[in-house]
Amino acid sequence: MSLLYLEIVAKICRTSKEKLKIYWKSLGKFKVYFFVLAFSFQMMYTYTGTSVKTVVNMYVNATVRLHENGGNKVKKLLVVVDMQIDFVNGSLGSKEAEAIVGNVKNKIEQCKSEGWEIVFTRDTHPVEYLQTQEGKYLPVEHCIKDTEGWEIIPELRTYVEHVIDKPTFGSTELVKYVGEENAECVELIGLCTDICVVSNALLLKANYPEMSISVDASCCAGVTVESHEAALMTMKMCQIQVRD
Fold this sequence. Notes:
Layout: H1 3-13, H2 17-26, H3 31-48, H4 52-68, E1 75-81, H5 85-88, H6 95-99, H7 101-113, E2 117-123, H8 133-137, E3 162-166, H9 172-180, E4 183-191, H10 193-207, E5 212-221, H11 225-237, E6 241-243
Parallel strand pairs: 1-2, 1-4, 2-3, 4-5, 5-6
């Protein structure tokens, strides 16, 4: 990097040239990514009108993160399972489900502040639900696509960015998505502990045995208190971390 560039960046970012030199020298083989970042931010400045100060700050911060992470993107995912109207206060709602809404909201806010990606799943059934195998075992219409009960509860809608619709308890699409995102760890919360939470936790553990998979019990509720506790024990036995 030129001394002129260092002086400009140091001034705008309120840091020292010496600190920037250290980061540059330590990048080693990752310098190629540094230049890719430089090109990307130059295009942003040229075509979007983003201010020089904003672009330079983004550039330097990205470079610093690249150095600190050893060039690897560390991603943590919070999976919010089926926090839908029908499961909270709709056709299959319960007092236990209503009671965790505040905890779930706080958990999402905490994780977002720490840089986690938030992914919602949504139980999704056709109008012919009662004719399906699940419908024959559980003959209560719920989460029919495009109905009010299918929607994420109002308290959480502002946090919804990525949603995975799933036609059954466990989601193979979620498993695929987690793999594509190269997540370091995944935590699950939501409903119901003893059906969809445990199903997805076990699917993820089976597909990614070396990945950290956890469940926050304070943000989950089961069909019954007893089945909730039984599901938590099952996950513990399968080396899924259960946080209280």
